[in-house]
């Protein structure tokens, strides 16, 4: 990174971030899942800038981040007992609730959908910022469209080195993958994006509270124009080097097979999954970022035998790996 570029993309403190956000600028902020690129929900200039900095198409809606339940209630026309129980149980935390939006919530944030995604992040810096602002921010992950989400401040600095974007350093993200996105349509629930908060945990919390609900399994969600909900796009989270998922048994010819597929003289490096799924999620993207930076490496590979567990948090890890991979062999 050249010196002048480093100056453009500066690290700032919460108070300076507040000032910038209030004049319609964007600021990259830490959350417990991944870093987000934030703008005030009341600032059309800031919201538009999120899309232009990320080179993100306008059909992909943004998640609104709140500091408390009251702010969430003010964004939706339907804050039900189900929402109350889920918020009490999982907030602050990595669960985004997709709820019917109030008219005041800008269509730019929701991509014209009648719903809005809302969550309360579990990160002291994000919460301090939101309390100082007294207003929610919209924040997608702080990466270029379809690229790997940042889990460390240096990932953000690298991604936007040509842009006038400031970042607050909040350390490494502890969850490491994006929030669970749950559509709540009356008593019908639908996981639109799996995350570290699992369907099982959601079910358990609602059952304990004695609420009745219907749980749809993970499925494609279409908006009124028949367009698929954006987080469900098949190619997403892509590292800069091709990622291969190896589902076959491993022997001495396996690596040679991959190397041949990608051309001679390419060297592969393994993305290793830790055995605890929470730890595997935590360092999944940081490995993708680190391996992508290596000049001696042509591709990344990850071993996922067909018999491997895909339950609980592994559902989300598998989802991210599949979407970021170029080949599944
Ligand atoms: O953990 C996270 O959720 C991170 C941090 C920064 O909070 N944010 C994040 O935002 O991952 P983003 O924009 O990269 O992904 C948000 C996804 C969208 O692609 C979309 O699929 C879904 O959330 N989403 C948001 N609003 C929605 C809505 N109204 N209806 C359906 N899906 C929605
Ligand atoms: Mg994203």
Portion of residues in helices?
25-40%
* Biggest sheet character: 11 strands, mixed
Count of helical stretches: 13
How many strand units? 15
Shape: globular
Poorly predicted residue ranges:
1-8, 219-228
Order of helices and strands: HEHEEHEHHEHEHEHEEEHEEHEHHEHE
Describe what you observe in this structure.
The chain has 329 residues and is of the alpha/beta class. It contains 13 helices and 15 strands. It has helices at residues 3-8, 14-22, 44-54, 69-73, 81-90, 107-110, 124-133, 153-159, 199-208, 254-262, 277-282, 284-293, 313-324, and strands spanning 11-12, 27-29, 36-40, 63-65, 95-100, 115-119, 137-138, 166-168, 180-185, 188-193, 214-216, 243-246, 268-270, 299-303, 327-328. The protein has an eleven-stranded mixed β-sheet, with helices on both faces. The chain has a four-stranded parallel β-sheet with strand order 13-14-12-15. A hairpin with a 6-residue loop joins strand 2 and strand 3 (36-40). Helix 2 packs across helix 7 (124-133). It is globular, with a radius of gyration of 20 Å. The protein starts with a helix and ends with a strand. Residues 1-8 and 219-228 have low confidence and may be disordered. Bound molecules: threonylcarbamoyladenylate and magnesium ion. Residues 31, 33-34, 36, 60-63, 94, 96, 98, 110, 113, 115-117, 121, 139-141, 178-179, 181, 192-193, 229-231 line the site of threonylcarbamoyladenylate. Threonylcarbamoyladenylate (TXA) binds at residues 31, 33-34, 36, 60-63, 94, 96, 98, 110, 113, 115-117, 121, 139-141, 178-179, 181, 192-193, 229-231.
